[in-house]
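worker-03 picked up job from queue 'complexes'. Input manifest follows; two sequence lines, order preserved.
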Amino acid sequence: MNLSELTISSLRKGLENKEFSAKEITEEFLSEIKNKDKELRSYLAVFEHDAIKNAELIDENLKTEKAGALAGAPIAVKDNILIKGAKTTAASKILETYEASYDATVVKKLKSNGGVILGKTNLDEFAMGSSTENSAFQVTKNPHDLKRVPGGSSGGSAAAVSGGLALAALGSDTGGSIRQPAAFCGVVGLKPTYGAVSRFGLMAMASSLDQISPITKTVEDAAILFDAIRGKDEYDATSVDAEYDKNLLEPDFNEIKKLKIGIPREYFADGIDKQVAREIEKTIEKFKGNGFEFKEISLPHTKYALSAYYIIMPAEVSANMARFDGIRYGGISEIEKSVETLRDLYFKTRGTGFGEEVKRRILLGTFVLSAGYYDAYYAKAQKVRKLITEDFKKAFDEVDVILTPTTPTPAFKIGEKTSDPMQMYLSDIFTVTQNLAGVPALSLPVKPYHLGGKELPIGFQLTGRHFREADILGIGRWYEER
Amino acid sequence: MIKEEEIQHLAELARIEISAGQKGKLARDLEEILAYFDVLKEVNTEDVQLMTGGSRDKNVFRDDNYEKSEFNTQKTINAFPEKESGFLKVPPVFE
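worker-03 finished. Artifact:
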């Protein structure tokens, strides 16, 4: 069995045709993790015993019933998503001993669709970062070049899928945390429409921007995994009962080829790496050569998106992080023993338990929300956000899908940007706008998934209308299958 | 210009202990980040409403009923650092 060729859809066929068992596949992935993860460091925890037990159960069920959409698929889950009974650390010292008391809704859905959860993957602490270097526990490597970052914050999930240590993975995307690592690692990442997937059981970072999202090897798998986890959930009031038809999983390529693709000139200004520009150009030519209609468009407020994002996101972070007080989710035992008052407990737990980037964002968020600065920063940013959203609305009157690079450069070196937060933030420049506007976006490699190639992977991004994941996934599949 | 005293004030508001050594670096970082935001001043936002999120601009309501929770409170209590007869035990609030 060649694991690198395996996808969620081919696995399912193989199981139905009895070419292999779910248990065999799970064991192969577990042994890959044992062999390779000492180097990649993509997992924070591996559930060897439970994974095998669940795979056996799926094999047993397959004797009598039809396979679920994710039957036997070994899946990794970012460690800011709760799995009942498992440690969930968000890669933070403040939660080092925290054990989740319930399953996130997406985890329930993975399980009910037959998915086998292999373990929890590394991330930037509380999903704050763009390289996974902000993890309190370990630095994850890019499988294409071990000296480079996998991107972030879902770097562990992207590296695991890219390195063959999981068939697919879940992560979260607040400003590009799925799409940027997917682009850096040569895999597929889909950020769904805001509200398409329940966030119940996801540790909130910036609640008006967060979405749980799949990372997979193929666009088809991204559609399958998205379809399995989406839907309204009474426990997340922002989730929406959106309608999706069968085109989500079975695109009609005749219809797909009628979609008009927009190229926003603002995304092709200076600052793009030459190799990225060249590969995106080639991608556009391929679409044009096959009869896709293109149109140059303008998203005039693009230039302001990163500023608006880095005001709104830390503002929400500063509120969401308030719950980590050293009490509700367990504390740091040396501190508990040494403090005399509640105030000391808060200050010392948060001072010791949070890493530098988390502190920076809490302080920045506290600043932009404080009296005297609120109007100049927070209110201004929310107005600019409105203008950015209107830019997209206008653009989607002219075109159906927007094509851009996912990132301005390929994966950067480990340590290259850690001392300069602003440089790190700039790597999100093409991905934050979609979160601000709530629209869905897909990142896929310009070349097919292939580990061990000489060049670093490069991703391009397709952005669609609200709840029109079918359009971007359809175009993505057309591209992938040719 | 962000001063170290301002960092200290923000840290007090956010209940985070920040070492003397960290304050200078954080002040410089915030300074650089806030300078980047200056670009927003060019945007004319007169008559623009604040956007507060969501894909559908619609309030979501539910009936005010209670249900028996499927969640186990004991597990939440177990996560407390210190407890006594099912209650959370914390250090004194007043100094």
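worker-03 released lock.
Residues 1-41 of chain B form a domain with the Histone, subunit A fold (CATH 1.10.20).
Chain B has a mean pLDDT of 87.
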